[in-house]
Design a protein that fits this description.
Helix content is 28%, strand content 31%. By secondary structure, it is α+β, with helices and mostly antiparallel strands. Strand 9 (206-210) and strand 10 form a beta hairpin.
Length: 300
């Protein structure tokens, strides 16, 4: 049996979700479908719904699947298929809807792409690099004199020109700039991102303003396990690469100075420019890749 989870039924399903995704559930930022067998929680699907753009630049309803899991002893019994069918029933047979999913490659999800392909998803050829950073990586990158120079960015006089905190951007202006940024997206990199300024981490998320317009910004979210996840690092079409580099360095310094030693940073490097800049700041740092798939048109 498939049910929609609420406050009364959520707790028994939490063991099926990695800790970094539990925040979506506990803070009601996502929808959840649960599979029951004899009143036992055996499967879970986590998804969000928002606006997105298809490859033709047309506005569509975008459903992002963040997690699907089945308890080990109940696998290969059709539970995952039932969860996906329930999702299709909710979203309906709409030509104006798309479903997206991301598969981390080589990290224990080897069968996931085959499952979603069987469901009808088509996967992009361009995989998305992900880099994970610790404070030790930061220290290893910089010699003593370079470290002093980097940390001096925290001084008021050395901040990048035009830099503002999220609190200096009104909620309305943030939303307008987010809409503008997403309208320029050709490949829907930022599908599912919230337009709400307040969901992003204040200590590491910043922007460089050019008048009333955001020229460059980097947005982080913090998971319940205190991992920082960079969900956007992007610039307007007229922005200078030097501005992007300066902002990335500034966010890195703020992380190093203000976060506890054990906090890791996950950089999702959707675009080639952001990947190259991250590799410049953290050379020789290992990456792994995520593969994005889409299901569009008839959702069964």
């Amino acid at each position: 049996m498939i049910i929609k989870l609420d406050e009364d039924t959520l707790d028994s399903f939490l063991p099926l979700v990695p800790e970094e995704l539990q925040r979506y559930l506990l803070e009601k930022e996502a929808f959840c479908l649960g599979a029951l067998r004899d009143d036992t929680a055996v499967g879970l699907l986590v998804f969000t719904v928002g606006d997105g753009l298809n490859a033709a630049g047309e506005l569509v309803v975008m459903i992002s699947v963040h997690w699907i899991s089945v308890a080990e002893e109940y696998r290969r019994q059709g539970v995952a298929d039932e969860l996906m069918t329930a999702l299709y029933d909710i979203t309906g047979d709409s030509p104006d809807a798309m479903i997206a999913c991301d598969i981390p490659l080589g990290r224990g999800y080897d069968n996931a792409e085959a499952f979603f392909t069987f469901q009808g998803f088509e996967f992009e050829n361009n995989d998305i690099p992900v880099m994970e950073i610790t404070k030790e990586n930061f220290r290893a990158r910089l010699k003593d004199e370079d470290m002093k120079k980097a940390l001096s960015l925290a001084d008021e006089s050395n901040k990048p020109k035009g830099l503002v905190s999220l609190d200096e951007i009104s909620k309305l202006r943030f939303r307008k700039n987010m809409k503008t940024m997403l309208s320029d997206e050709e490949f829907m990199y930022y599908t599912g991102l919230s337009y709400d300024r307040d969901v992003y981490d204040r200590g590491t998320s910043f922007a460089i303003m050019n008048g009333d317009t955001i020229s460059v910004w980097t947005l982080f979210r913090k998971t319940r396990s205190d991992e920082l996840h960079m969900v956007m690092f992007d610039a307007s079409s007229g922005a200078d690469t030097k501005e992007m580099l300066a902002l990335l360095k500034y966010s890195a310094v703020m992380y190093y100075l203000n976060e506890p030693e054990g906090v890791h940073v996950r950089l999702t490097l959707w675009k080639e420019k952001s990947r190259k800049l991250a590799e410049y700041v953290f050379p020789n740092k290992d990456e792994y890749t995520v593969r994005r798939g889409y299901l569009s048109g008839s959702l069964r």
